[in-house]
Write a structure and sequence with these properties.
The protein is an all-alpha fold. It has one domain: Ribosomal protein S20 (Methane Monooxygenase Hydroxylase, Chain G, domain 1), CATH 1.20.58.110. The protein has three helices and no strands.
Length: 88
């Protein structure tokens, strides 16, 4: 562990950031799982509402730099194309 005051502070900050990033990543994974579960049951209405919620969570994660913006865009694109392929 570090001995300098600034390094100790940086370590504390990194622990807080790690906890925050892990929480956000968990929210993203759960939102994606909800969309995929709705797609599997072929429930278009449920899938669209889950997609809207997931898109919000994914976009928030990308603005916080937890996810790369291209990764976020790819995930949203794939989910929305899967939801749009469901029969209405």
């Amino acid at each position: 562990m570090a001995n300098h005051k600034s390094a100790l502070k940086r370590h504390r900050q990194s622990l807080v950031a790690r906890a925050r990033n892990r929480a956000i990543k968990t929210q993203v994974k759960n939102a994606i799982k909800a969309v995929r579960a709705a797609i599997e049951t072929k429930d278009a209405v449920q899938a669209k509402s889950a997609l809207a919620a997931a898109t919000s969570v994914i976009d928030r994660a990308s603005t916080k730099s937890v996810l790369h913006w291209k990764t976020a865009a790819r995930q949203v694109s794939r989910l929305s194309s899967a939801v749009n392929a469901l029969p209405a």
